[in-house]
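Recall that a protein's primary structure is simply its ordered list of amino acids. Everything else, from secondary elements to tertiary packing, is in principle encoded there. The following example makes that idea concrete.
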Amino acid sequence: MGDEVAPVLEAIKLDVELGGHRVLTGVELELEGSDLVALIGPNGAGKSSLLGALAGLHRVKAGRIKMGDLDVTSTSLEQRSRLGISLLPEGRGIFPGLTVRENLFVGGWWRRSTELEPVLDVLPELSELLGVVAGRLTRDEQQLCAFGRVLMSEPSILLIDEFSLGLSPFVADRLVRLMPDVSAHGTAILVVEQDVERVLSIVDRAYVLEGGRIIKLGTPYELLADPDFVLEYLWGS
């Protein structure tokens, strides 16, 4: 076996409460340097809550969140953004009153980055939309804009929540194909996605979250060889 790789992001026995209700209990999760990892589970399992806790949106009741050797459990969303965590939330995550160009500039704010070419090389569709107010874009175009915005921050850790929701199959597949390239350039990605077959086609491994607890971890091969997993998440129960 080779040398162990230190996690770039680690959740340790994480408990989170929202509105007085426990939504995460004892969650343990690791991301390494260029990991591409899925978080799978039924509606209400706590997937979005976990991404929010990792990004700094939700306060942790117990446990720790670490970036390398740095404990970031009590740091703010802004501080974690500066450290390299970017969140692409469910529902596009754009500023509808700003143009596409302005949305991209907002994404590059912490890095003081105004260089659009690297993002436009990845998402050339945005080149002809730079002057368009984002609120006037189609759903597909808005998600491409949102994806470009988070890439502008040059994240070391990218958290993606339900990226394909409401998208055409073409654009959903387009974004799926981009993720391995983004992770290969040194960005660890944790993605929540309801289309299990689609997301398992690209990830290195997946965590299964049910009732606020991690109940399973495995490679796509291992999970697809598990009849209970296939019955629950691919065939339906």
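The mean pLDDT is 92. Residues 169-184 form the longest helix (16 residues).
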